[in-house]
DNA sequence: TATTGTTATACTCTATAACTATA
DNA sequence: TATAGTTATAGAGTATAACAATA
């Protein structure tokens, strides 16, 4: 041990997280950050952020949906969703079509190009999700989802 | 049903999350946001953010700790931690004392005022944590922590 | 009056480069 | 040369107020 290291060992106490490490909230946060980082990396080849993918998935699942509905479902503020859709539309991935009977809103849908990109992105998403599921071990996914939903409803 | 509502029902399909709702990552995110929102509200009376509390807890648990060590433990970039500590110090909650043998760094500690505030904040934190634990139902906390730690290590 | 989408803006969190003073 | 703390700044992500067009 060098004298500097020795002095360091004398001076610095062994650090502790002060109980934080046995807190669900703290570990929940670490897990969520890790999952989003991993998913973001997986979506990199498609130039999509996590939010972009979620918006595309919702539109694909329910074509004709209006912006307001998507924002409500994904908890994205309307002004922020405008920007996201502008970008996706500029890339030719989604369309904003007129809604018969309501000229205020748009019917959103995925373009063929969007669908093609989504196929790859969904495969990457699935691979990522499998990694997360492996971390669950023998804890059933449904059990985990139920608990997380209950926490989300706090 | 009004004619507007009827037209709405005809036009808008029943929306779906497109499989997102059965994804651990998505629900994990909802849970984490809910937990942090609840904790932030619980800490409001003490004028502390979640990060402030975690920093105070770590310093209290290990007095004499240096800024770098705290940043590493809590995953806070050093430049950002400077601001946080500046604020806590300006409020008289923490102290930056000289470290014998290394004039580059500071030994951090909680002041009596900080300790007094922390007592209340810790009680609020504990009450919040009990709410989270209730949402776990019969799933043991240790089991949950283990799974979340494994996910965090993805 | 209320609602959809929009614009502009602000606030928080997080991240990076470069500096200083020490080691 | 490397490290601790700092400064300045930039980039996400998120939030609110106010507007135009339409209901």
TrEMBL record, chains A, B:
Gene3D superfamilies: Winged helix-like DNA-binding domain superfamily/Winged helix DNA-binding domain. Residues 21-153 form the HTH marR-type domain. Signal peptide: none annotated. PROSITE patterns: HTH_MARR_2. InterPro entries: HTH_MarR-typ, MarR/SlyA-like, WH-like_DNA-bd_sf, WH_DNA-bd_sf. This is MarR family transcriptional regulator. It comes from Caulobacter segnis. The lineage of its organism: Bacteria, Pseudomonadati, Pseudomonadota, Alphaproteobacteria, Caulobacterales.
